[in-house]
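All the exercises in this workshop are built on plain-text protein records. A record pairs a protein's sequence with a compact description of its fold. Read left to right, the backbone structure tokens trace the chain's path through space. Once this layout is familiar, the rest of the handout is easier to follow. Here is such a record, shown just as it appears in the course material:
>
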Amino acid sequence: MSVETAASGAREAGGSRGSSGRQEGPGGLWDSVKKAGFVIGSGILFLAAFGNSLTWHLQRFWGASGDFWQNLWTKLYVAYEGHDASLFFLGTMLAPTLAFWGSNALLLWVDITGTPSFITRYRIQLDKNNPVDPAKLRQALKCVLFNHVVISGAMTVVVYYLMSWRGNPCGPELPTFHWALMELAAFSILEEILFYYSHRLFHQPSLYKHYHKQHHEWTAPIGVVSIYAHPLEHVISNLLPVVSGPVLLGSHLSTTSLWYCVALVSTTISHCGYHLPFLPSPEFHDFHHLRFNQCFGVFGILDRLHGTDSKFRQSKQYERHTLLTSFTPLNESIPDTQKKGQ
């Protein structure tokens, strides 16, 4: 191990250790939990009050196309009648796999070749991965493939038996639009809670050193390393926050598969390293890889409540943390402040 690597590890662990004392703030963890409950509860009340108005128009569209989707599902259901396990495994592995590798195919091409320039000009950390180190990428891909095929595949089997114990995840009727939308909202809230606290847990010095440090080898992440992690971390911090919602709600395969696709594409964007026009901002999680002890969550709700985004909110990255609605890179429209003498 080089002196530079050892020093980097000490800074990371020290940063995590030093920040943990500051992050709790007045009132401690319990005070933050109460605040989180208030915010999440208010959000649920808001959805209950205004959900019907928001979804009425969408339901009209869904109603017009609902028979089409139901007929497609019925044909698939009949074709796999008596083989629910195969249908479930197909739906929760094939569609998410296509979503993950489809979205990463273009990103990998850009990372490896440095072209086209239309995309590379939106790179967040301009001096990194230009192009990506081939040896480092090969090592990451081996781990990613293992996690995706072996670990996620095994988790899918466990999830199938849990959901079958609760009900029938491959039932003949698709969920209504309203119910599917409410489920997706519930999944998102649960993911934010479980990912935030499990992620912070893996930043404790002892766990960080043995498990989470692997993921943070990429201080400037790329899309595919979103699931580059130790298998234990992949189960606890990547998979459990995503699969818990469908298991607890006894969701239909269609909603579960859609949610897995959304989660994988979302984490790919968060790690991609490019702040592209009209896509969600990845600045929040990119800053986490850069600074290690900031921005632990998905949406930033719990980070705000726990104060673990304080440095982020004082940075240029926070100013750029918005939906880019033009074709001018935010590194150009909101440039870094030059140091004196430059």
Summary: The first helix runs from residue 3 to 23. The chain is about 70% helix and 0% strand.
